[in-house]
Write a structure and sequence with these properties.
Order of helices and strands of chain B: EHEEEEHE
Number of helices of chain B: 2
Largest sheet of chain A: none
Bound molecules: adenosine monophosphate, sodium ion
Number of strands of chain B: 6
Number of strands of chain A: 0
Oligomer: heterohexamer
């Protein structure tokens, strides 16, 4: 236990997390501090470009891709199955209609790239390595959850998913496959892979050195936006609020199990747990507004951004990391 | 003396995710054109919203289209249906334009 | 045929610092909602202004609210008082809306 | 009871490069003021355009001016001439204002 | 004298100041060069984050906090008293009504964070150290001047400050205590202090290395905005214009005196003089528009941004620095 | 030939060009990825600030300014004459009216600063030096083409250029002489020159180290904007499309000839060819919309940004570089 506390302390006392807390505090105190929208969106693109390129360049450097296929399959399955668990838990413990339950659980099947980036930065402070192909797993886990969420809504609702008009479907497909995070993550990964070490050297002063500082500025913004989403939204019933805390724990447990099965090293195991535990708040909300317009957007925006994201960043990341370390220490079955 | 022609101006304030759907409605209803204007905050029956830096899904956009009275009828009906699913409001008002032929 | 209801559209162009005060006025006057639109420049009786990158105090913002005729009366009176202290203009015009009940 | 005065609201959607020319027209025609509003996309007779990040020449801007009926006549004529060369549309509508003297 | 000239030359020939001059020139020549608003505001946040964090980290590194209490008290008193001097000078030398006189003098009692940042960068070129707790003094000097400005307006005006409706008061208090500069300055200071050297290392490539370059880009923007404020505003009467030049000198003299009394080292003495001499153009204008709406905003925006800021940056900083050096050299009473 | 292929390979396999291709691909596939406008414009200013300052600082470092006068004269003549060639080629091979033909050819006489910046970055990867005063040549080549384009339109059209009203003329002159690229390029050059090595040291971590990384992010944006300009515009007749490919080649040939005549080193020869081959898409369109409003803007925006810019960046730069190397190798007449 002592070991977990010191790791949790490390996480909380790191500049990125402290700036997140500063943002939450300023947002809750209704300060007029805001990071302009254009800058917030560009910082997110920068973070994805940085971890994508670094992943690809490491790949080209001949880093053993052991376990990559396993990690990818595990990721896709987790993204597809977690919404099923979430759906039935929500239908049992809340008064959500089937569309809202399906939409919320799709968020939890998918991933939050920024939570992943924050976990990568945390691993850096603990000097723990991880397989850089995990970046590709992030991109792969974005979409299956949306498909499984739509299927759940279709099966549960009498009128069927036919509701998604042919026209909306084409916007939906483009939203799922070509949204900015997938394009930047996968694109930067491929470019890093093609240009390898030489390419890395030329972009490192931009993509590597200032990474942690940019993460601080971005998490300051995230804290402000999360706090304002919380204060702005109607008071949430206890059912959904608790769901937004225990669902990430269920996701993390499944992620840890899958990673151990596939035999990933501790760093990658922790990251898979983080991905399973994290909930999307950019890509999936946009898709759900098109596919399931009747689902209550205020609910899933508040749960994923204002409850689950802070929980994962403040508590989850060190917790899943300690669990991965503990699993690695105990001799497997 | 400048010759003016009576037309209708439809203004729709709607959720950003519904923007492509609304543009489809306008194109199919043969609207001669439209202009998109950014909204940076608002309040309706539900809680107030402020230009949310990161999640476009929570933002609104304004679409203005100058159309003939007949086209206005069709567009208002279609937009009404869209607003059953998506947050927003629509208004129509009288305007006068120079080059009648254009609209 | 689409059924339309007559309402009033009030548009206020006002200094950014007065924005929270104007929103208080709208909320107290029972306005069903409002939308904020950015202004990037202008000129009134005083000198022209351009979106001043650093000092919000010199910028203007536009607030649109669709209200019933009665509410419009009250709001116009209150806004008039505010404009005695703060730079800006207010206009009211006739619009038609679909869901009368909303406004 | 709030005393209101009838005025005209002219709204011009025009290419950004023509902005200084249009402001010259308004100043010469003695307009009491104007406000500039950003446009982030649109479609007219020609192809659709989206806020082009790098080339301002392809963007549009909206200019609103509240004027007296007489001034409106002169301004509409001048704007009409400008729109022969530059992409855009102009509309005029009736509004009511509080402080008549201002416009 | 020679020594002062060489120092003034150093200041003028430094990249940040030259970019400020480039901005003023382009603005006066009505060039269409503009730095987008979102970027200008973010650069200001970056500068505050950088000096705040650096101050806190140095604090944690056991830097002697000698004289901190003295510097803070001096700062608060200066911020509170300077508006009184300014108010009576304005009432005597200009036809300003009492509200405008009170609002203008509140600007001069408060501080301009960017002038402080430019002075810190100047000290860097002169290799002169300063007490990093001065950052905290900046935050403390923002607000007292607003309170004293309101009191002056209340006492002078017959109808009394009662004019500030109860509702406006809540917006005003939040504006004063929670405006973005105070939150970022104090927040970054605390985070730097909590994470110390280890935290500094992780964010230095972002917050320390590019600092001067970012200051150049920001001062280019400041030059453009100051020039446009000057050309845009009605021609100002001589009274206020001269006030905008001699008031900073009075402020600086008071700052130098207070610093010597409290026994600060030359670097910190120069900075206290700069703070006393500088006039706010972001935080105070916002507060004055709420508290004293009848005050003529065009006047104080033009005086503080288009006259006093350029004066301090081009002439004031090297002048107050040389005075601080001279004071340190002459044996005290 | 082999040597040309390897150089072309180097160019294509460099991070900036790959990010440009990623942007084009995402744009053509209608992905919703966009770089916010405020950031795109600031990145362009940053790139101009960086090469301007570097040029000036090198100049101050006593870098031989041999051939500067020759390069400048050649640049101005090229900028003035290329539109004449373009005008008659367009009148012969397309159905453009004289205004559109004049406006399009003015674009090709002028320059694209970003193409120049990309070529400078390419020279870096080939470790080939160039005369940093070429930056001044860029600024000088922006405007003559506009004047010659207007003259061509005036001579060809019966009603004469009198069409440009006196009022529009003042906006036009300011647009030509004081547009943002000229101000930033020349301004930074002068500041770099004034502050020399010492100034360079202070801004290098901002203006030099992250340069290539920022170029990657900017070219990602350029790819998106170029692709959308292509998909958005009406289908272009073959005449203009082929013009947008062979005109840069003609320009490059003239540039190579002029550089060899003036006796520039290979690096600078390649850059002069790039400038002659490149077409403006920010400064000239703005001027043409004022001076020749009846010219078809969709045509020149599409040709210069969506056809010529990608051609130059993907194929042109390595081609003109190889030609410059080849010319230097073969003994002159
Ligand atoms: N009466 C109104 N006047 C102006 N804008 C409104 C009004 N009602 C709603 N809106 C806008 O429409 C958005 C959605 O409204 P609602 O669907 O009621 O939440 C609000 O956030 C406002 O931006
Ligand atoms: N006639 C008008 N039409 C449109 N906007 C106006 C008009 N008059 C004033 N404004 C706007 O209101 C702001 C303040 O006007 P003023 O209080 O006269 O300085 C101006 O800067 C414009 O943005
Ligand atoms: N009927 C319309 N309603 C609203 N905006 C329009 C309309 N027609 C044109 N516009 C705007 O004016 C711009 C230029 O139109 P055009 O000159 O037809 O290409 C379009 O891109 C739209 O932004
Ligand atoms: Na997940
Ligand atoms: Na001061
Ligand atoms: Na050229």
């Amino acid at each position: 236990m002592g070991e977990l506390l010191s790791v949790a302390g490390d996480n909380l006392l790191s500049p990125p997390i402290l700036f997140f807390i500063l943002g939450m505090g300023a947002g809750l105190a209704r300060s007029d501090l805001t990071i302009p929208e254009a800058v917030g969106k560009t910082l997110a693109l920068y973070l994805m470009m940085a971890i994508g390129f670094k992943g690809g360049a490491a790949m080209a450097g001949g880093e053993a891709a052991a376990g990559m296929a396993g990690a990818m399959t595990a990721g896709i399955l987790l993204s597809f199955l977690i919404p099923v668990i979430g759906f039935f838990l929500l239908r049992a413990t809340t008064r959500f209609d089937s569309d809202t339950a399906a939409a919320v659980s799709a968020h939890y099947g998918s991933v939050s790239v920024v939570t992943f980036v924050t976990a990568v930065s945390f691993l850096g402070t603990q000097n723990v390595v991880y397989d850089t192909y995990m970046v590709a797993v992030v991109a792969l886990m974005e979409t299956p959850a949306i498909v499984s969420g739509l299927l759940l809504a279709h099966l549960a609702a009498s009128r069927g998913a036919g509701g998604v008009s042919q026209r909306a479907m084409s916007h939906l497909v483009r939203e799922i496959l070509l949204n900015s995070s997938v394009v930047v993550l996968v694109g930067s990964f491929v470019i890093g892979w093609l240009t390898g070490e030489r390419g890395m050297e030329r972009v490192a002063p931009f993509l590597v050195a200032p990474f942690t500082g940019v993460l601080c500025l971005f998490l300051l913004d995230m804290g402000l936006v999360a706090a304002r989403q919380l204060t702005g939204s109607k008071v949430l019933a206890p059912g959904p609020l608790i769901f937004a805390i225990y669902m990430p724990l269920i996701g993390a447990a499944l992620g840890l199990a899958a990673a151990t099965l596939v035999g990933l090293q501790p760093g990658s195991t922790a990251l898979l747990a983080v991905l399973a535990a994290s909930a999307s708040y950019i890509a999936v909300p946009a898709a759900m507004r098109i596919a399931l317009p009747r689902a209550n957007a205020a609910v899933y925006l508040t749960l994923s951004l204002a409850v689950t994201f802070p929980f994962n960043v403040l508590v989850g990341i060190p917790l899943y990391f300690a669990a991965a370390q503990w699993l690695a220490a105990t001799p497997g079955p | 003396m400048v010759e003016l022609h009576k037309r209708k101006k439809i203004e729709v304030i709607i959720e950003t995710p519904a923007r492509p759907l609304l543009i489809d409605v306008l194109n199919r209803a043969g609207s001669p054109g439209y202009t998109l204007i950014p909204a940076i905050g608002g309040r309706g029956l539900r809680s107030a919203w402020d230009r949310n830096q990161l999640m476009d899904a929570a933002n609104q956009v304004i679409i203005v289209t100058i159309v003939s009275a007949e086209a206005a009828e069709a567009i208002m009906a279609e937009v009404g249906k869209l607003l059953e699913d998506y947050r927003g409001v629509v208004t129509v008002s009288d305007v006068e334009v120079l080059r009648g032929g254009r609209f």
